[in-house]
């Protein structure tokens, strides 16, 4: 009788350990296959209605605020209160003759001028953890300007997200030389504002994340972009995890998915024969 009791306990222990092992194995398998999707919405600070729709989305969506925008200070404080990551969306000189916003960076500026403009932007978007370029096809390809900028970002402990508005950008290379963490945009959601095109770009972002492990996506506070994100994020596949830009900057690990729910209590249950002793993981007739 004693031998039977010990055999039963050994069997129960083996079953419990096997359950724990396979649950852990499943969790690790999901962990290994989960891809990261980071989304940044540029041009925040101009349109209250569209900004509000963006700020109603999950806080993992980061916002890039233009310092000279009329609602920039309010959006900065609002995002901070939500625990949402903020970037300074710094206007920078493009190759074309398009005029940029006040306070932007131009090719040929001195270190002193760059220092003043970065500080002024940081005074407005005070809760920023990083910076990305608004336009900037000429600026990000200019080594002297990028050297001056990265020197300032290093002082302010800010990372740089290169929007990749030009293929020959030197921003990432110089950032590395200056000890600044640099990340690159992978997918633009809304180069075309047509609904079908934005939907296509969102699916492309998911494919990119699965293939590369991480997709950094940039969009804008526009009607169709907001509609696609609202629908897409509500049905985000299980193998894709929405993450903030800060989590990428800090190289944070993906939180493994929760294991299977234990359907049966692991509390001791009474046997169905006298003396009705409690045996762990044994389901009997309730008292």
Automatic annotation (TrEMBL):
InterPro entries the UniProt entry points to: Divergent_DAC, Glyco_hydro/deAcase_b/a-brl
Highest taxon in the source lineage: Bacteria
Keyword annotations of the record: Signal
Signal peptide bounds: 1-32
Pfam families for the chain: Polysacc_deac_2
Gene3D superfamilies per UniProt: Glycoside hydrolase/deacetylase
GO BP terms, alphabetized: carbohydrate metabolic process
Protein name: Divergent polysaccharide deacetylase
Organism encoding this protein: Alitibacter langaaensis DSM 22999
């Amino acid at each position: 009788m004693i031998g039977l009791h010990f055999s039963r306990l050994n069997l129960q222990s083996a079953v419990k350990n096997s359950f724990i092992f396979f649950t852990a194995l499943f969790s690790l398998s999901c962990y290994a296959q989960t891809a990261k999707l980071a989304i940044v919405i540029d041009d925040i600070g101009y349109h209250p209605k569209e900004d509000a729709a963006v700020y109603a989305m999950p806080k993992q969506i980061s916002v890039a605020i233009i310092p000279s925008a009329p609602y920039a200070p309010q959006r900065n404080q609002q995002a901070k209160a939500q625990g949402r990551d903020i970037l300074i969306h710094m206007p920078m000189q493009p190759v074309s003759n398009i005029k940029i916003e006040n306070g932007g960076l131009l090719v040929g500026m001195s270190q002193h001028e760059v220092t003043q403009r970065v500080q002024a932007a940081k005074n407005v978007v005070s809760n920023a953890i990083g910076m990305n370029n608004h336009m900037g096809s000429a600026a990000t390809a200019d080594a002297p300007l990028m050297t001056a900028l990265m020197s300032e970002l290093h002082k302010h402990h800010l990372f740089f997200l290169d929007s990749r508005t030009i293929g020959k950008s030197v921003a990432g290379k110089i950032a590395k030389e200056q000890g600044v963490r640099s990340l690159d945009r992978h997918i633009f959601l809304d180069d075309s504002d047509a609904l079908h095109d934005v939907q296509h770009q969102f699916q492309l972002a998911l494919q990119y994340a699965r293939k590369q492990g991480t997709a950094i996506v940039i969009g804008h506070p526009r009607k169709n972009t907001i509609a696609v994100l609202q629908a897409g994020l509500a049905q985000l596949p299980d193998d894709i995890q929405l993450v903030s830009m800060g989590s990428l900057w800090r190289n944070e690990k993906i939180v493994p998915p929760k294991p299977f729910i234990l359907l049966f209590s692991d509390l001791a249950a009474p046997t169905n024969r006298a003396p009705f002793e409690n045996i762990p993981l044994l389901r009997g007739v309730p008292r």
